[in-house]
Amino acid sequence: MKILYSLITAFQTYSRIPMPPVAWKSENRRYALCFFPLVGAVIGALFLLWKKIGACLAVSPFLDGAVAALIPLAVTGGIHMDGFCDTVDARASWADREKKLSILKDPHIGSFAVLALCAYLLLQAALLGEIGNGPAAPVIAVSFVLSRALSGLAAVLFRNAREDGMLHENTEPARKKTTAAVLVLTAAAACAAMLWCSPVTGAAAIAGAALCFLHYRIAAYREFGGITGDIAGWFLQRCEIVMLVCAAGAEKIAAWAAGAGGLMG
C-alpha cells in the first residue's frame, strides 16, 4: 500500500488530476518522486491525442500549438511555471544569495517574470504548432517524461538551498538511493524511446536536456547555494523548451537536407 500511496501523493503534488485522498505523511512520500515522471507520461499522451484530433479537424498551426501549450499547464496547474517565474525574478535581481532566496518566497510576480512567461508561451505554442504530426511529435511527448525524471533525480542528488519548503518536505523522507536508481532507469528508457521515435530529433532533444541539467547544477549552486522547489520548476520548464527547440530545429534541418539532397540528385 505504501507504493500506491506514494503514487497517489506524486499525482496530488505535481498534478491537478483528481486522486483519492491520502494523508500528507512522510511514509507516503518515500517513493513519490519515483512516480513523478508518470505525470509527464499523462501529459505526453494527451499531447499526442490532441495532435491526432487537431489533424483530423484540420485546425490551424496557431490553434494546434496554442492548445498543445496549454495541456501541460492544465495537467500540472502551473506549479512548475510558478517556480520558473519566481526564479526568473530572483536571478534578474542580481542581488546576493539571501536576497534571491527571499525573492523566491515572494508571492508577487515581477516584470521580468511576466516578460519571460509571455516569451516562453509564445515560443512554445509556435514550435508545437510548427512540428505538426512529424517525427518530432512523439519525441516531444516523451520529453515530458525525461524532464521530470531529471528533475526528480536532481531533487535527491543535489544540495537543498534551505531546510524548509516543498522540495525539502518531499526529499527528506525519500528513500534516495532507490529513488535515484528508479529515476536513472526512467531517464534511460525515455532517452531510448526518443531515439527510437526519431534518431535525429531524439538525439538533439537529449543533448539539449543534458546541457540544461549541467547548467541547472552550476547555476543553482553558484547563485542560490543549492536547489529549491521553485528552482526545480525553473529547470523543468527550461529543459522542456530547450528540448522542444532542439527537436524542432533538428526536424527542420533534416527536412532541408533531404530536400537539398533530392534536388542535387
Shape: globular
Instruction: Please mark out the parts with pLDDT under 50 across 5 or more consecutive residues, or reply none.
Output: none
User: What percentage of amino acids are in beta strands?
Assistant: under 5%
Total DSSP E strands = 0
Question: How many angstroms does the end-to-end distance come to?
Answer: 62 Å
User: Using only CA atoms, what is the Rg?
Assistant: 19 Å
Give, in order, the helices and strands.
HHHHHHHHHHH
Query: Structural class of the helix and strand makeup?
Result: mainly alpha
Mean pLDDT reading: 90
Largest sheet: none
Number of folding domains? 1
Number of helices: 11
Helix fraction by DSSP (H/I, runs of at least 4)? over 70%
Explain briefly what this protein structure is.
This protein is 78% helix and 0% strand. The protein is mainly α and 265 residues long.
What does this structure look like?
This protein has 265 residues and is an all-alpha fold. It has one domain (2-253). 78% of the residues lie in helices and 0% in strands. The longest helix is centred in the C-terminal third of the chain and has 36 residues, at 229-264. It is globular. The mean pLDDT is 90.
